[in-house]
Design brief:
Number of helices: 13
CATH topology of one domain: Arc Repressor Mutant, subunit A
Strand content: 5-15%
Structural class: alpha+beta
Strand order of the largest sheet: 3-6-5-4
CATH class of one domain: Mainly Alpha
Radius of gyration: 19 Å
Largest sheet: 4 strands, mixed
Distance between the termini: 37 Å
Order of helices and strands: HHHEEHHHEHHEEEHEHHHEEH
Helix content: 40-55%
CATH architecture of one domain: Orthogonal Bundle
Length: 296
C-alpha cells in the first residue's frame, strides 16, 4: 500500500516513453544518482517517472534495476510514443487495479461511489476507508496530496483553462473522459456513460478483474455481478450496469472476432468470454495500439 511515490506530479505527456527508453538502454539507470540528467528532468520528477512506470504495470523493480514487464515490452514494440488511446486505456486499467503501488487510484475507482463531490469529501472518505482496513493511517496532508494528484490525472477543467496545447504538464489520462472539474464550484463529476473502447480493451479489463480477485480461470459471469466485481470493467471504466451492457454491445458490434458476448434477457444477462488467455487478449489490444499510433 503506497502513497506519494509520484512526488505529487500527475502523469505527464512523454514521461512513460522516456522511462521505457531509459530502461531499454540500461535497466540499472534508475539507480544512478544522475538519472534525472539522463531523463532531462528534475530529481523529484525522475522519482515520479520511476513510480509511474511501476504503477502502470510497465516495469518491475528487481535488485539494482528495473525490468520491463510483458506489458512494458509490448507497449515499447507497438506504441512506444503512447499515441494510441488504447494504450492509455491499458495504463488506466493497470492504475485502477494496482492496490500495491496506486492505492488511492484503486480505492477511488473501486470503492468511492459518489458521482458528484468536492476534493475534501473524497479525502475524508479515503481516511474513513483506511480507518477500517489499516492500523496506521497516513497524515491528512499525505492523503490530500495523493487524492489531489489522482484527480489532476483525470479531471478536465470546466470552463477549460487557457493553456498551450503542447504543454507537457497535461496528463494524457484526461483524454479518457472519466472526470470533469467545475472550477467555479470546485465540484468534480464522474462520467458513467458508455465508453468507446475496443473489444480487446474491454476483455482485458474483465480478465484483469478476474485475475486481481483470484478467479482468473473464470469465463462467465452474470452482468449484474460483473458490474459489482472489484477491479472489473464497471469500476475501472466508470460504468453502471446498464452502460456496461451498452459498452459490451457496442464493442461486440465493431469487432470481427469478439472476445466477449452477452447471452440471456434482462435480469439474467450472462457475460461470456472466449478461452483466449490474458496474454492473447493483451497482444490483440497492443496490435490495435500499433495500428492507431501509425494512423496518428
Amino acid at each position: 500500500m503506497q502513497f506519494g511515490g509520484h512526488e505529487t506530479f500527475p502523469l505527464r505527456e512523454g514521461w512513460l516513453h522516456k522511462g521505457l527508453a531509459l530502461i531499454e538502454s540500461d535497466p540499472r539507470a534508475f539507480e544512478d544518482e544522475h538519472v534525472a540528467d539522463q531523463l532531462g528532468v528534475g530529481r523529484n520528477m525522475a522519482k515520479s517517472i520511476r513510480h509511474w512506470l511501476v504503477a502502470c504495470g510497465l516495469a518491475e523493480a528487481h535488485v539494482f534495476e528495473l525490468r520491463l514487464t510483458a506489458l512494458g515490452k509490448g507497449v515499447w514494440e507497438n506504441d512506444r510514443y503512447f499515441l494510441s488511446s488504447t494504450t492509455w486505456w491499458l495504463m488506466h486499467i493497470e492504475l485502477a487495479t494496482n492496490k500495491e503501488h496506486a492505492y488511492s487510484w484503486w480505492w477511488f475507482f473501486n470503492n468511492f461511489t459518489a458521482d458528484r463531490f468536492e476534493k475534501p469529501t473524497a479525502v475524508e472518505a479515503l481516511r474513513r476507508h483506511l480507518s477500517f482496513v489499516k492500523n496506521r493511517i497516513p497524515k491528512d496532508e499525505t492523503l490530500l496530496r495523493d487524492v489531489g494528484c489522482m484527480l489532476a490525472c483525470y479531471s478536465r477543467a470546466i470552463p477549460a483553462l487557457r493553456e498551450d496545447p503542447e504543454d507537457s504538464r497535461h496528463s494524457p489520462l484526461i483524454e479518457l473522459g472519466l472526470l470533469d472539474h467545475h472550477r467555479e464550484s470546485g465540484q468534480y463529476r464522474v462520467h458513467r456513460e458508455a465508453k468507446n473502447v475496443s473489444h480487446a480493451v474491454l476483455a482485458y479489463a474483465i480478465l484483469r478483474g478476474f485475475e486481481r480477485t483470484g478467479s482468473e480461470s473464470q469465463r462467465s459471469i452474470l452482468l449484474d455481478s460483473l458490474a459489482r466485481l472489484e477491479c472489473g470493467p464497471a469500476h475501472t471504466l466508470c460504468l453502471s450496469a446498464e452502460t456496461l451492457f451498452e459498452t459490451i454491445e457496442a464493442a461486440s458490434a465493431r469487432s470481427k472476432k469478439p472476445f466477449v458476448k452477452i447471452d440471456g434477457l434482462a435480469g439474467q444477462r450472462e457475460v461470456k468470454l472466449s478461452q483466449a488467455s490474458l496474454e492473447a487478449i493483451l497482444a490483440s489490444a497492443l496490435a490495435e495500439s500499433r495500428e492507431e499510433s501509425h494512423v496518428a
